[in-house]
UniProtKB/TrEMBL annotation:
The gene is fdsD. This is Formate dehydrogenase subunit delta. It comes from the Bacteria. Keywords: Oxidoreductase. Its EC number is 1.2.1.2. It comes from Rhodopseudomonas palustris (strain ATCC BAA-98 / CGA009). It holds the Pfam family FdsD. One of its GO terms (molecular function) is oxidoreductase activity.
């Protein structure tokens, strides 16, 4: 899956959680990615973040950082 598609999908998840505020949104996004994304998708979004994370919404960026620390 292309990085652009993963960014789009992650940002859509972020949009869902955004209304809960950053204190709940960031862990909610990270948990969703952990539960529902395949390991290779998680590795790819982490690699995208490591390469600069272009296009990731701020709360999604923070969630992927948290996910990175949990793997």
């Amino acid at each position: 899956m292309s990085p652009d598609r993963l960014v789009y999908m992650a940002n859509q998840i972020g949009a869902f959680f955004r209304s809960q505020g950053p204190d709940k949104a960031v862990p909610g996004i990270a948990e969703h990615l952990k539960k529902f994304w395949e390991p290779r998708m998680r590795r790819a979004i982490i690699a995208h973040l490591d390469a600069g994370g272009d296009g990731l919404a701020p709360e999604v960026r923070a969630a992927v950082e948290a996910l990175k620390g949990a793997t």
